[in-house]
Amino acid sequence: MFPAPIGGIPLPSEFAGSLIFAILYGLLIPVLVYRLWDRRSRTIVFFGTILAVFERTIVLSLRTVATQRDDWRFSDGFLKYNQITLGLGFVSIGNDLVGLVRCLLVNPTYGYGDGGRYDESPAAATKDSSFQAPRVGDVDRPAERQRCRQFSFWMLMFFLSSNIPGSVAGGMFQRKYFENEQKAHLMMNLRYASSAVALFLISVLMAAAAWSRKYQPRASHKAIHRLFVLGTLLIIVALYRLSVMHHTTPAFESTLAGTLNSPGAKASFYILHLLPEWLCLVILMCFNTRKTFGTGPVGDRRGRDDTPEQILKRKAQKAKRDAKKANRENRNADPERHSDSIPLRNIATSSLLIDTRLTGSGSR
């Protein structure tokens, strides 16, 4: 007996389900393109989400084709690819939640005035952010900010490390290992480890958001509620995976109970695995995540606060940009004044030429 693949193998009976979800994921691609094109919502914080949109569209399209082709359905290569991507999809979205939580925790720590460093925050680079700007009396909290950055860094490292056992386990779905009990046992443990670690890390991120709501006065409740929804959807995926990993199968094509190829198992896979992931992507793509979490274009990329020299350099660059912007606005506000300047110069030049000719003709 070998561990049953999550979602089973693509059977002809699930052609409609695969096709519908391939279309649903594919419809997110135009939204994604718009978010990347519009500078008001463009941010690289959800890079994993971008990959998930394309990856899910591709794998479900291939799965739809495999429901009608036996050579694809029983291919070791397709089975490995299918299991690896299914295992890493919700983890990649969790990676993006780390970047969002980092902005959520860091933005409220900046204080008022020049000493408050608010211009360094990602929220300051976000127009109409859901985070309130510091007011008089709001003190800067650099130590808390640094702890939040260290916490986010290690959370990102742990999320990335959880990909390793999942990738190894997915790559072991091969027929040559089917009668190898040692390989089967190892693969089952690796799958459990990957999903369990991801479940724990998502729970920690939600706990961090709850801490922000309680202890950070200027925390964005809108961003916190959004994170709770996203975290809950990902937890559903993780719990589903953990609940079905104990199932085994005598053959990949078997439809016996417990092989995850039965109609009920297929329905559970689409409802509890693919649907929550799709809803996460809809929330991240269809709403302005940059504005909600105050991420700016790149999120909170600083490992530590700027030095005095970096602050002076940044302010000089900002003053230069502001001057150029004001100059452009002045030109746009009074175009006739600037358009008339050239004809006036031409008139003066023409008058000078006429005077010169008249003087020359009078002397002759």
Automatic annotation (TrEMBL):
The chain crosses the membrane at residues 15-37, 44-66, 86-105, 151-172, 192-211, 223-242, 267-287. Residues 296-342 are annotated as: Disordered. Residues 324-340 have a biased composition (Basic and acidic residues). The keyword Protease does not apply. The keyword Secreted does not apply. Residues 313-323 have a biased composition (Basic residues). Keywords: Membrane, Transmembrane, Transmembrane helix. This is Uncharacterized protein.
